[in-house]
Specification:
mainly alpha; about 85% helix; disordered N terminus; about 450 residues; membrane; DUF445 domain-containing protein
């Protein structure tokens, strides 16, 4: 499926590139008109020197004087230069006079090879590690980024963009997928890590620090208050558990005695920090903390209990509800411009920008990170980047490509013909003059 998508994307890009090279924009049409004007100018110069050459030769034979020879030599060389440069310029785009002369029509016949050469040239000279590092180091991204982030309006913009991206990401993610991933990660991590020794150390420290005493105080206080309010329920429970053959008044007396003893025990335990039951509880917790760390049976039981708890549906539902609550909280914070989340992000960006603007070490870290990332991209995907050039050029139609390239550079190439006419004429004049001087 992914390969099909990539292939479709590549075909779409090729189609866009093909349309770009086969459709002439108004600017291209204007360039083509400019090329035609320059062609007429260069051809007019060729015709001009040809006419002057004919007239000079006629004047020379008619005995007009030595000047005619100089003019004839200059214009003759000018025609040669103009024709040679016309041939060279024309050979780039088509066969001169339609003749299949070797090494002509270079662009349409060598289009694909030119694309390959261009791709290799870009890869070797622009996508090399040294070039990328030098250019990025010269830019000074760290200092520029720091100065840019130090402006409050820029920090606000980045914060807003980050909030939008975060909100979009959380909106796109499906709750079921995230819940499955989070639940599986928690279950796997918890299952792979034995928790009994850690619990034992934590419990040992709590008991040593007396942190459990507040819990005991809370439990016995609540137990005392409950017994005071529900004395009848306790006595009824005791009487209900008595044998059927005992008299009712005996059951009632036993129930009242049990209730009073239970209430006395809880009251004393509440009011006496040194109560023996509290000491017994301390010793029990200490022994239990030690067993959690060293007793294999206890640790195995804890692991079995952990597995049973993690496997229960209620725990997975708790994970699901926790993710839903966290996502809602983050989305709401991302949407609220005055939320603590956005304010802290904005403050962090401003602080980061101010530090990067003056701290050379921070700038160096950012520069090295950017350089490393860029180098990794160009070295890892150099072939893909250069293939974009070669494949694009290969997808172009040869005829339309030739016309478009000629429209862009043809006007300058026509100056070569004009310059060839002028330089040829001057060279011919110089050679004729030197030969006349030496001959004299």
């Amino acid at each position: 499926m992914e390969q099909t998508t990539q292939a479709g994307s590549g075909e779409a890009q090729a189609a866009v590139s093909h349309r770009a090279m086969t459709v002439f924009s108004p600017a291209d049409e204007e360039r083509r008109r400019g090329v035609r004007r320059m062609k007429l100018t260069a051809t007019a110069m060729l015709l001009f020197v040809a006419v002057v050459y004919v007239l000079a030769k006629w004047a020379e034979h008619a005995g007009a004087g030595a000047w005619a020879g100089y003019v004839a030599a200059a214009t003759e060389a000018g025609m040669v230069g103009a024709l040679a440069d016309w041939f060279a310029v024309t050979a780039l785009f088509r066969h001169p006079l339609g003749l299949p002369i070797p090494h002509t029509a270079i662009i349409p016949t060598k289009k694909d090879q030119l694309g390959i050469s261009l791709g290799e040239f870009v890869g070797e000279n622009f996508l090399s590690e040294d070039v990328v590092r030098q250019r990025l180091r010269a830019v000074g991204i760290g200092s520029r980024l720091g100065a840019w982030l130090a402006h409050p309006e820029h920090a606000d913009r980045v914060t807003a963009e980050l909030a939008t991206a975060l909100r979009g990401a959380l909106t796109v993610l499906r709750d079921s997928d995230v819940q499955a991933v989070v639940g599986e990660a928690i279950t796997r991590r918890a299952g792979a890590q034995e928790i009994a020794p850690g619990l034992g150390k934590m419990l040992e420290k709590i008991v040593a620090d007396g942190g459990h005493k507040r819990v005991v105080d809370l439990v016995v206080t609540r137990a005392h208050d409950w017994l005071v309010l529900h004395g009848d329920s306790v006595m009824d429970a005791v009487q209900g558990g008595a044998p059927g053959w005992t008299p009712k008044f005996v059951d009632r007396k036993v129930g009242e005695r049990v209730y009073r003893e239970l209430l006395r025990f809880v009251t004393e335990m509440r009011d006496m920090p040194s109560h023996p039951a509290r000491g017994a509880l301390d010793r029990f917790l200490t022994d239990f903390a030690s067993d959690l760390q060293s007793d294999s049976d206890t640790r195995a039981r804890v692991e079995r209990l952990k597995g049973d708890v993690l496997g229960r549906g209620e725990v997975q539902d708790l994970i699901a509800s926790a993710w839903t609550a966290v996502r809602s909280m983050i989305v709401a914070a991302a949407e609220d411009e005055r939320s603590e989340l956005r304010l802290r992000v904005r403050a962090s960006l401003l602080s980061l920008g101010a530090r990067m603007a003056v701290d050379s070490k921070a700038q160096g870290k950012v520069d090295r990170w950017v350089e490393g990332a860029a180098v990794y991209v160009v070295t890892t995907y150099r072939k893909e980047i250069t293939s974009l050039i070669t494949d694009t050029v290969a997808s172009w139609d040869a005829e339309h490509t030739t016309r478009k390239i000629e429209a862009h550079i043809g006007r300058d190439l026509q100056f070569i013909r004009i310059n060839g006419t002028v330089v040829g004429s001057l060279a011919g004049l110089l050679i004729y003059t030197v030969s006349r001087v030496l001959g004299a």
